[in-house]
Predict the structure.
Amino acid sequence: MALNRVVICGVNTSKLPYLTEDEKNMLFDRMEQGDSSAREEFIEGNLRLVLSVIQRFSGSNENVDDLFQIGCIGLIKAINTFNLEKNIKLATYASRCIENEILMYL
């Protein structure tokens, strides 16, 4: 068994990919062209952001799996509504969307 191995909703968090800014930009361009595999890769590459946001709610009595799932919904909503022209990073926008989704749930 690996140290630092945490499984949330069946996802081994130690194996989540890291995306560079270039990879994110490339995937985002492919998503805008309708590439669904790029969309899945983009979502998976940003799941660490969901983990980061749900840590803020560790004091609540809610199940971590539930918070992770709700956070993933927030991430997907952020990706659906993100606008590159506004000159803001996706992580900034998505973290607020994830947090808002969790707060609505709570």
The CA atoms of residues 85 and 98 lie 21 Å apart. The chain has a mean pLDDT of 82. The first helix runs from residue 21 to 32.
